[in-house]
Amino acid sequence: MDTHVTQGQAAAATARLVEPPAKLDEDKLCHPASEEIELAAVLHALSDPMRLAIVAGLAAEDQRTCGSFNLPVTKSTCTHHFRVLREAGVIRQQLEGTTRLNSLRRADLDARFPGLLDSVLEAAARA
Amino acid sequence: MDTHVTQGQAAAATARLVEPPAKLDEDKLCHPASEEIELAAVLHALSDPMRLAIVAGLAAEDQRTCGSFNLPVTKSTCTHHFRVLREAGVIRQQLEGTTRLNSLRRADLDARFPGLLDSVLEAAARA
DNA sequence: AAAAAAGTTCGACGGGCGTCGTACTAAACT
DNA sequence: AGTTTAGTACGACGCCCGTCGAACTTTTTT
To answer: B22 and B12 in contact (C-beta within 8 Å)?
Structure first.
């Protein structure tokens, strides 16, 4: 090999063909761009009572950790629900030490689907 | 028995304990009352692309028959989607000869969840 | 260095969903 | 009366969803 690529880097590149994100810490939690947010996915994400509660709780107080909700499910189920919300573009998760801070993507959602989040939040508060 | 209940009525009442609606033609297609409409059920009903298309089509032109949508699925699947929408309280179906006329429950939905339907419809139109 | 804290990953399980085909019902049109 | 029209009812199939437990990673605390 005449290129300055170590054996480790080559192995990593090969592995990336199979498993894209690999090791970049920032991209480990991948979010859709605001234009990529799909309505059906958002509505599906919000159609679960527990996820609706998460979103309502986040609307009341932003930047909360996953554990702060004290949901009546195991941690793995908790991870699942937050991932569904994140991949639908409803919330943003950022790594912060050992925890993940969750925030509502209000601006992005409002830009893509004006008024939708607010009406859902108001509806959730009413029930 | 000293109450004025005929044998027929008693039998009907007993049967109703096992199979509530039974034979009343109007109740064959049972809809939830507006206060009984649940948010999660509505969001779930709207989270399917085909049902979203049905609702959008109904918003454009009301009182349409099931067949008028020419959906790319079989009739039984079609029946399924309309039932999900009806049982969630999103649409109303009324028997009319051999067909069922579908209409959006705008007033009921607006009363229960103000602005929700409109924002979803606007979001659907945008995508 | 060891333990604790906060999540993630993986495999598994049961139930529900979207889809289909076949059989059926009820009204409408020959 | 027979046929067409417009749906419904009932299984059946594969797949996805919500849930769990066990093992793991990473950062923080002791």
So the answer is: yes
> For position A83, what pLDDT does the model report?
98
Give, in Å, how far the C1' of C15 lies from the CA of A79.
21
Computed over every residue of chain B, the mean pLDDT equals: 84
Query: Quick one: closest CA in B to A88, which residue?
Result: B47
Q: Is the CB of A94 under 7 A from strand D?
A: no
Q: What is the pLDDT of residues B24-52, one digit of tens each?
A: 344 578 999 999 999 999 999 999 999 99
Q: Does residue A47 contact residue B84 with C-beta atoms inside 8 Å?
A: no
SS3 A15: helix
Burial of B16 from C-beta contacts in 10 A (0-12 / 13-18 / 19+): exposed
| Consecutive H or E run containing A88 | helix A75-88
Residue B78 beta carbon within 7 A of nucleic strand D: yes
Cα A96 from Cα A25, distance rounded (Å)? 11
Query: Contacts of residue B124 in chain A, CB cutoff 8 Å?
Result: 39
Strand D contact with B9 (CB < 7 A): no
Whole-prediction pTM: 0.83
| Segment A53-58 mean pLDDT | 98
DSSP letter at B61 equals S
pLDDT tens profile A97-123: 999 999 999 999 999 999 999 999 999
Nearest nucleotide (C1') to the CA of residue A74?
Answer: D20
∠ CA A106-B53-B30 to the nearest 5 degrees?
100
B39/A124 touch (CB, cutoff 8 Å), yes or no:
yes
Which is more confidently placed, B21 or A31? A31
